[in-house]
Amino acid sequence: MAKKEDESKTRLIHIRLSEELHKTLRIRVAELDTSIQKWVESLIEKNLGKHK
Fold first, then answer.
1. The model's pTM
2. Are 52 and 44 contacting, i.e. CB atoms less than 8 angstroms apart?
3. 29 CB contacts (<8 Å, ≥6 apart)?
4. In a 3-state reduction of DSSP, which class is residue 34?
5. Distance (Å, rounded) from C-alpha 13 to C-alpha 50?
């Protein structure tokens, strides 16, 4: 069975962070037992009103 088009495609984005901000981010997501990817995706979904 073929996947729905919206489920099979993803997009890659790049952002630049200072070393200090990146370190702080890594610590925070570790405390939350998640990944940077999942954490950022969750923030975007919440701010766009599209909760999973």
1. 0.71
2. no
3. 35, 36, 38, 39
4. coil
5. 19
